[in-house]
What does this fold into?
Amino acid sequence: MLKRKIYNELVSWKKNNGATAMMIDGARRVGKSYIAEEFAKSEYKSYILIDFGKAPKDVLDLFVNDSSDLDLFFAKLAAFYSTALHKRESLIIFDEVQQYPRARQLIKYLVADGRFDYLETGSLIRLKKNVQDIIIPSEEDHIEMFPLDFEEFLWAKGYTPDVVDGMLNHMKELKPFSELEHSVFSSHFLDYCILGGMPAVVREFIKNKTFEGTLDIQRQLLADYKEDIRKYADGMDQTRIINVFNSIPVQLAKENKKFQLSKVEKGARFKDYRGCIEWLEDAGMVHMCY
It folds into this structure.
């Protein structure tokens, strides 16, 4: 298991004992589903994971036909997934809930019922298309999940929290590293800069102890993100969004780190591209620094 900081936040949320559902929001492939299931396995007596990306019609129909009778709803859900549900000891995960907004709207009533805990994961959850025609439940807490940071990367490499904290204290106290320490940690940081923090890439690197295979995963991730633009950027200039997306690493690799629209298209104006940039930010694909 890749140790993630978000896990402790989920444990803290669980102590509230059903006061809210928890939404894990974040870009695709940052590890939301993985951490949700690991949390369920470790912290609950039983759990059900409903993946709305591939949930069968029989399950979706429960939210339409049986949501007014929660006794029947839970009985059918438990039967379909062959999983016993235990009061206050079971977790129900709505995975990729943006693909079925009706389930998210039901959270208000499920939380009020109080029998079980609810964890939602969502990619592109802030896009208008994925929240239209529903009332966002106020009974939702939110955590935004990101790729692994450098500290989590070092944990994945096998370093204990004490060692990583010691490295951090060196920097806080402006205490020089030994030559060996500096060489080792600099090497790891360079690896991290090359790999990034996407879990699938890091996992491949840790498994093989080489960069072999990681570039293919990175390329597939980029292809997936571009496919999301084509799929979800309805009514917008998808070509312009993809052009901005492609231009970002090229521009930020230069000495001048400013992002300039004129480098995307000659004569480009902010008013023509504002929606494209905001869409990428809402999708979690970029982070703005003004």
User: Anything to note?
Assistant: The chain has twelve helices and five strands. The mean pLDDT is 91. The longest strand covers residues 21-26.
